[in-house]
Amino acid sequence: MKDDETQNAxxxxxxxxxxxxxxxxxxxxxxxxIKRLRDEGSEGNQKMMNDLLGxxxxxxxxxxxxxxxxxxxxxxxxGGIIPRFSEVADKFPESKEFHTLRVMxxxxxxxxxxxxxxxCDIWERHGSGLIAFHGQSGDIMFQGCTTENTQKAFDELNxxxxxxxxxxxxxxxAMSCVGHARCEQSCYDEVRAHRTIINKLxxxxxxxxxxxxxxxxxxxxxxxxxxxxxxxxxxxxxxxRDDIKIDQEKVKEHVAEKGRKYxxxxxxxxxxxxxxxxxxxxxxxxxxxxxxxCMHCINVMTxxxxxxxxxxxxxxxxxxxxxKIGDLMGIMVVPFMRLKTDxxxxxxxxxxxxxxxxxxxxALEHERVGETIDRIGLPAFLEALDIEPDPxxxxxxxxxxxxxxxxxxxxxxxxFERKAREAGLQISAE
Amino acid sequence: MKDQPNTPRTPDEVGVPDPFQxxxxxxxxxxxxxxxxxxxxxxxxxxxxxxxxxxxTVRAGTQRQMDVFxxxxxxxxxxxxxxxxxRFTTRSNIEYLVADQGxxxxxxxxxxxxxFPVGGTGASVSMVSHTQGWLHxxxxxxxxxxxxxxxxxxLHKEFVQEKMxxxxxxTTSCCQINCGGQGDIAVNVQYTKPPKINHDLVxxxxxxxxxxxxxxxxxxxxAMVNGKPSLEVDEKKCxxxxxxxxxCPPMQINGDDSTKIAVWVGGKxxxxxxxxxxxxxxxxxxxxxxxxxxxxxxxxxxxxxxxxADAKHWERMGEWIDRIGWNRFFEMTNxxxxxxxxxxxxxxxxxxxxxxxxxx
Lengths: 430, 360
Hints:
The complex is a heterodimer.
Chain A (H helix, E strand, L loop, with lengths): L5 E3 L2 E3 L3 H4 L9 H11 L2 H20 L4 E2 L12 E2 L2 E2 L13 E4 L6 E3 H14 E7 L6 E6 L1 H13 L15 E2 L13 H11 L1 H5 L9 E4 L8 H4 L2 E7 L4 E2 L1 H11 L1 H9 L7 E3 L5 E3 L9 H5 L4 E2 L4 E7 L13 E8 L3 H21 L6 H8 L1 H8 L22 H22 L1
Parallel strand pairs in A: 10-11, 11-12
Antiparallel strand pairs in A: 1-2, 3-5, 4-6, 6-9, 8-9, 12-17, 13-16, 14-15, 17-18
Chain B lengths: L24 H5 L4 E8 L2 E6 L4 E7 L4 E3 H14 L3 E4 L5 E5 L5 H10 L30 H17 L9 E4 L11 E7 L4 E2 L1 H7 L2 H7 L5 E6 L2 E6 L17 E2 L6 E7 L14 E7 L7 H17 L6 H8 L1 H8 L27
Helix pairs in contact in B: 2-3, 4-7
């Protein structure tokens, strides 16, 4: 027996003293799972995972990573595989290639046990047996595959109806919340919006040719359960324009159950625009013109309050993390777009296409669209997308006087024309 | 002679799969027509549709990086005790959907007996959303999965009960790119030294102009070193962010003396009450102490305990600190406020207190 190997179930395996420390405690252990693949997995899984554990323990010892990237792809696609080659393959040869397949999940992350078992069977045959539900990119991460088996694994996953996600300078895998499928707070059909946009732009995902990554995320309401505003270049957030719906009897029941003080402290006082008051008879009154659709009162009083009926989406553009100019959240660019009819969805799809096209044509290499907007200014972006400025886009108007305003009157005329047009449309609709 | 190469299979570009084929029939039947929900106990949601139909959700924590045996065990539980339909949350919890209330208790029992904690709903500490780490990433400073295992072992009780003021969302990231995202508490690698450059490799491995362009503070410039084209770093300008390392691996940013961990607080994605916020620095320079990261756990524990003890019901971490002030936050958590907490990046001025509002 070699020095660096130890006996396990009659076979020689790498000792993993540091990883062994991660098997105690009440939370499920990823190490215990990987060891089971090493000890009981398919023949391919066993060899690969023994060396994988060896390399991981080596990382824990030296506090260094030992993977490098490269180029691996499947026939017909330019992205979707994250190649990993070991820098310590001489010590751990069986996991020298440990690529990940990024696979797009169904919108809303719904599965049957049957489809999960099929995925397991495929990955046990062609990969390592290790799958992450899900990576931070939103993909199912099939982690650990040799270059040779990458195509086989993808072919079989593709045959059961799954496709590769995004990687590199490309359209990335999107995420949508559970939404319409289970949540009464959902303000639009997230599945339809998600699939309409991504499947229309799929070529940008499979054949990376954008300046840098571009991400869509879909949240059914302002609770933003998929973290779209921080993390997506194009965030679609459900909202409504009419009044919050109130069931006053349920309000009274809530007050009776939770108490008046608790209701005042947690609902009335926490409204960010002081739009709610509690009446003497334990019903509530909402000043809907002041409400900002933040969702708080609806979150607290789930039975009594719900979003209004005139529902649709807000679109925020430009969210991303630190690289390169610093963190950016999406900017409110479309305060409201109705999203009910086929025509509404066509309009959303068209807008998404135009934003991605603008990004493709105007962003610098390795620049996210939020950085492009910072570089050129929001007015130039709006003009390119043919969007009129709206007070909902700002916290407050500019404070800097360094601006040339000699066409102010023409711009003001546009505003009044738009207001008159909107008023006219409303009258004719009635 | 070798066999003729097989004709490669052309992919079927199916895109985002249709979820309706996997969705629980009650959810499918009531799609877009839900009325209200409640949480009968931690880890369980009860949603009622306008039709009167009811669906129960039982949520359990997983280790995210799952072996096929674990997934099959979760499937067995789903077939035996639930209706065979599951979903995953953004934070890698598994959710079982069941139409029959009678199935809820046995399902919970089965999950718990197999070691999957049931919880993560409402005002709890849900699973840490995290990155790949040493297991798979090409630029990791630490192993998020290991850090998370330690954190969730420590916070297990807060996962299975709903006794926090509001939900508490933790993230971990293995470098400053911060793929783990914003959090009420974010545990992120924070480098403390400029990259160490292997000048023999730069010319062959790195596209030098692209690396120069990647630096957020213009600290990298082309240079001839030992007669070879390479890159050099102005170490006075360098902010040790590691952005040059992915496009140029010979600019090694990781190392025992440089890979440290910082803890950030008060990030929030939701628009409920206050607008979304970024997390703010609480403490830096914690050691990258695998396999248990005790110094990180200790800081996180102190922050969680202070928040739990002092925040009002429904206040998120950042909202709580806004109310009590940073003075009190640093006092209650026994952390130091230093010059490094004063932002120096673009827009820093807007983070300063330009008022006479004070906390004492």
